[in-house]
Each structure stands twice: as C-alpha cells, then as structure tokens.
C-alpha cells in the first residue's frame, strides 16, 4: 500500500511540468503579441493548442496516480 501511495505521489508531479510549460508558452505568446499585434489570431491558436497538449500530460499523470492508488 505504501509503495502505491509513493508511486501515485510521483505520478502527480507531472503537473509541475505542465504548469511550467503552460507558463512559458503564455509568456512567449504575450511577448509575440506585443511585438506583432496583427498576428494575434494565429498566435492565440497555437497557444491554445500548446496549452491543451501540456494539460494532457498533467491529466495523464493524475489518471496514473488514481490507478496506482487503487492497486
């Protein structure tokens, strides 16, 4: 039981990477829009796509943590 809890805790740490990734991407998107405001539509499209991909890794980590907790 205790190893499952430890493994679940490690799996949840994937949320840290996702948070850092979304933060960096948002910062770069804001910088890009401030440099070239006319490209805001394209930049926001790529930002949303990238944020969704980063968030997917966090969700996978959460699902793995739940699976490991039930073992």
Automatic annotation (TrEMBL):
V-ATPase proteolipid subunit C-like domain location: 6-68
Keyword match Cell inner membrane: no
UniProt topology in membrane: Multi-pass membrane protein
Cellular compartment(s): Cell membrane; Membrane
Site positions per UniProt: Reversibly protonated during proton transport: 55
Regions that span the bilayer: 43-68
Transport recorded as keyword: yes
Gene3D superfamilies: F1F0 ATP synthase subunit C
Keywords from the UniProt entry: ATP synthesis, Cell membrane, CF(0), Hydrogen ion transport, Hydrolase, Ion transport, Lipid-binding, Membrane, Transmembrane, Transmembrane helix, Transport
Function according to Swiss-Prot or TrEMBL: F(1)F(0) ATP synthase produces ATP from ADP in the presence of a proton or sodium gradient. F-type ATPases consist of two structural domains, F(1) containing the extramembraneous catalytic core and F(0) containing the membrane proton channel, linked together by a central stalk and a peripheral stalk. During catalysis, ATP synthesis in the catalytic domain of F(1) is coupled via a rotary mechanism of the central stalk subunits to proton translocation. Key component of the F(0) channel; it plays a direct role in translocation across the membrane. A homomeric c-ring of between 10-14 subunits forms the central stalk rotor element with the F(1) delta and epsilon subunits.
Matches recorded under NCBIfam families: ATP_synt_c
Identification of the protein by name: ATP synthase subunit c
Organism encoding this protein: Clostridium chromiireducens
């Amino acid at each position: 039981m205790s190893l499952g809890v430890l493994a679940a805790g490690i799996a949840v740490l994937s949320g840290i990477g996702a948070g850092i990734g979304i933060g960096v991407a948002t910062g770069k998107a804001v910088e890009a829009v401030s440099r070239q405001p006319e490209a805001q539509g394209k930049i926001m499209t790529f930002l949303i796509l990238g944020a969704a991909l980063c968030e997917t890794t966090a969700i996978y980590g959460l699902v793995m943590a739940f699976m490991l907790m039930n073992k």
